[in-house]
Amino acid sequence: MRYLKTLLMALTLGLALPALAAGIPVTLYKNPNCGCCDAWAKHLEANGFQVQTINTTDLASIDQKYGVPENLEGCHTAIVGGYVVEGLVPATYIKRLLKEHPPVKGIALPGMPVGAPGMPGAKSGPLNVYYIDASVPPRLFVSF
Ligand SMILES: [Cu+2]
Predict the structure, then answer these.
(1) How far, in Å, from the CA of 74 to the mean position of ligand 1?
(2) Partners of 29 in the beta sheet?
(3) How many structural domains comprise the chain?
(4) Which residues are 121's β-sheet partners?
(5) Could you list the residue range(s) of the whole structural domain that residue 44 is in?
(6) For 31-72, how does the pLDDT look when each residue is reduced to its tens digit (9 = 90+)?
(7) From ligand 1's centre to the CA of 125, what distance in Å?
(8) CATH code where residue 126 lies
């Protein structure tokens, strides 16, 4: 009886642990020579995501494939829960996107602004994260 209990407990733990450790899956397309994308991936992993990195020197094709307009391009493109996350968007806003589940392609923090996760330093002003959809000019998702 005691043996059975121990066995059941071990099975329960064995099943529960990988599920907890896995985190929210992210596929990250990045240039192998860009370091801030790796730092951003670490920031995500520290905040409950699990990042799979795919190195490519042809990010233009990735942007085209996922419908990221040129004016919203960052240094990398990530796919999370069916959404496109372009650039160094903080983990907390990705979670908000997944929770609110708006009918858009995704969100973008254009460029590589100092003060965003992965780019050390102090921000020179508020950083804007935009929706990726058909809106011109792009609609603001959040300022931080
Ligand atoms: Cu980068």
Answers:
(1) 8
(2) 54, 77
(3) 1
(4) none
(5) 2-143
(6) 999 999 999 999 999 999 999 999 999 999 999 999 999 999
(7) 20
(8) 3.40.30.10
- Which tens digits make up the pLDDT trace of 73-98? 999 999 999 999 999 999 999 999 99
Residues less than 5 Å from ion ligand 1, measured at CB = 34, 36-37, 75
Per-residue confidence (pLDDT) for residue 127, from 0 to 100:
98
Retrieve residue 61's tokens: 């094709």
- What percentage of the chain reaches a pLDDT higher than 70? 85
- Rounded-to-10 torsion of CA 49, 28, 109, 99: -40
Q: State in Å: Cα 36 to ligand 1 middle.
A: 4
CB burial of 116-126 (b: ≥16 within 10 Å; e: otherwise) equals bbbbeeeeeee
| Centroid of ligand 1 to alpha carbon of 22 (angstroms) | 24
Say which amino acid occupies 16: A
Report the DSSP pairing between strands 24-30 and 49-55: parallel
